[in-house]
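ok here's the first one, seq then struct tokens
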Amino acid sequence: MSDLALITGAAGGLGQAVAKRLADDGWQLALVGRDAATLQAAYGDDHLQIVADCSTTAGVTTVFQRLQATGRVAVALAHCVGNIRLSPLHRMREADFNDCLNANLISAFHTLAGFVGALRVAQQPGAAVLVSSVAARIGTPNHEAIAAAKAGVEGLVRGAAASYAPAGIRINAVAPGIMATPAAKGILANPASRDAAARLYPLPGIGEPAELAELMAWLLSSHAARVTGQTWALDAGFSTIRPLVRSA
């Protein structure tokens, strides 16, 4: 029987791309989302589908109770839950800030805790990959909330990687630039804004979820067996090199 991978945020653009990539690699999948109809629309009757909110301990408990009932242990986790809340600090509403933290950081903390807890009970090694952002690595206007949340994700990855390396559990993160997903539809709402966003990158363009899914699948595979505690940028050079500035 193939190994089981757990994908949270599975109905989103990145979650669907990761699911396709891992399924192509022969993984069996357990897919988590907050809405049954959305999961059903994305996957039909394929794979194990679990309805839960990963930003709460109760939701994460539901996920791992469902897995336990099947007699299977997920040995890979792709945590794809997240959102984008953009606003300068002094205008950010409390509700939006809390929503950003819950979706991006709190969900990662609880889900990773459930994942490593299940592996430790089963005395199995495993691998997890979380999603950070270029905004956690370089100051970007109006990104204060998402930057704070994703920087927390990167700190979580380093700390947890240190805690669980002796148990053979690898924990890494990816840090993309903007991608063509539903979460970014407000930023890429029209051709002009999309073109402006694309020109911010040293390698111009907008990232595709399939590109990030490829990296995440590699980090979960045996090919990355010596990789843990790291955050891998997939941002077309945004966080490390300056784009060429051309005059109009």
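and now the second one, same deal
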Amino acid sequence: MPTEERVAAMLKGTKHRPDEIVGKIRVTGTREAWEYTVETVAINAVMAGAKPEYFPAILALAASQTRTYGSTTSSSAAMAVFNGQIVNELDLNSSTGALGLYNNAGALIGRAWSLLSMNATGGSVPGHTYEGVQGNPMSDVPAVFAENVAGLPPGWKPLHVQKGFH
């Protein structure tokens, strides 16, 4: 449960103010965008069972303003790929089973992102805030994992370099 004490402990994982607006998520193209704060993100992280040290990663996903589920006529699943020092700090998986729920940090970060996506937008109400035709069990917990930089084939550049970061 997101008690005041647990939320306060989660908020110790960031220097951002609890009332700072992190972003907005628009449920569908025709609906208004809902704003959410650092505290809202922390509440959802607590409900997911995440540890305070996971909070910077969860907050980064929240700041991306990307939902974990979409309204589609097909199946879809969200994913987030992490790279850099945070991979070792959080012990994110980049190897066997990386896309599964077998890594505690990745699973809890993904669950927090998923809960935020549902709760910060008024919930998933079929026909109202969720207009997908088919359901997908993977939409509840997105894949969160690390890039296996050491395992890249010769000549391949890590994703962050491909995207213009160094």
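notes on #2: The chain has one domain: 4-162. The CA atoms of residues 43 and 61 lie 15 Å apart.
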